[in-house]
């Protein structure tokens, strides 16, 4: 790590897709050192290598947001190496694209697995890293949510993806909780919708690039003292809850 590093960033699920693009973009900014989260060790090493080869400040870290053991190991590593975390980006997520076809035990399993990663995973990752974020002079948390989880926007969508969308609606309440809890301490806690980006999550059917999906998250990760908190936005502006 170079001596000029002033911000330590952890991004979950950053070995591919939008998380990888957030890692690329933030590690290109002066002073930012990125911990590229991956639940699979080799995928993390390979992804980090692509950015390290460009001379970027990136190192892989194993983190499975559904595993308490993995969260404990990751927090221990960050504690011993850096003693603080400046930016946490809760990006890891899944979407079972054929979820409408499930019934019976498979439907229960789909709800369980989706909420375990997208909702409980982000909540428990945040909780695990609160002590390290508290050691930062400028804590920032970004939750990667989705406009499709907006209750106010629901009439703009057909009835689809009830599991994925409700996992993101619930995620927004977790964001509001942390934003409110730490507002007086100056933390900036916000949610970003990347837009419909072509990634593995949607079989690369999204019309936008993953690079474009990273833009608003990177902005929120770098907010100054006068930046917003407790908001839900995309690169065009505020999204109604
Ligand atoms: N793409 C879109 O159009 C879109 C729109 C709105 C919101 N989003 C949100 O954007 C975020 C990133 O999605 P993406 O589109 O970039 O999809 P992606 O390319 O499939 O990336 C998802 C990442 O999350 C990781 N992940 C999944 N479960 C995990 C777990 N239990 N622990 C740690 N990491 C885990 C995946 O790891 P593996 O590589 O090991 O599978 C992968 O690195 C998600 O939260 C998604 O809901 C995406």
UniProtKB/TrEMBL annotation:
It holds the Pfam family adh_short. The keyword Oxidoreductase applies. Keywords: NADP, Oxidoreductase. GO terms for molecular function: oxidoreductase activity, acting on the CH-OH group of donors, NAD or NADP as acceptor. The keyword Oxidoreductase applies. Belongs to the short-chain dehydrogenases/reductases (SDR) family. This is Short-chain dehydrogenase/reductase ATR10.
């Amino acid at each position: 790590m170079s001596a000029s590093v002033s911000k330590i960033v952890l991004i979950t699920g950053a070995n591919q897709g939008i998380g990888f693009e957030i890692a690329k973009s933030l590690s290109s900014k002066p002073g930012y050192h990125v911990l590229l989260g991956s639940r699979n060790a080799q995928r993390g090493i390979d992804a980090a290598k692509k950015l390290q080869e460009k001379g970027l400040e990136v190192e892989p870290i194993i983190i499975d947001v559904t595993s308490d053991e993995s969260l404990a190991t990751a927090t221990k590593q960050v504690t011993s190496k850096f003693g603080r975390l400046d930016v946490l980006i809760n990006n890891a997520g899944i979407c079972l694209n054929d979820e409408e076809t499930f019934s019976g035990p498979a439907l229960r399993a789909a709800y369980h697995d989706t909420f375990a990663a997208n909702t409980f995973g982000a909540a428990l990752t945040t909780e695990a890293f609160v002590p390290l974020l508290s050691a930062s002079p400028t804590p920032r948390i970004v939750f990667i949510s989705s406009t499709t989880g907006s209750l106010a926007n629901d009439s703009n969508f057909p009835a689809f993806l009830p599991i994925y969308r409700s996992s993101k609606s619930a995620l927004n309440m977790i964001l509001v909780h942390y934003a409110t809890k730490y507002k007086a301490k100056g933390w900036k806690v916000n949610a970003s919708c990347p837009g419909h980006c072509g990634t593995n999550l949607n079989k690369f059917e999204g019309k936008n690039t993953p690079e474009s999906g990273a833009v608003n998250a990177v902005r929120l990760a770098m907010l100054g003292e006068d930046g917003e908190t407790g908001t839900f936005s995309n690169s065009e502006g505020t999204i109604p809850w």
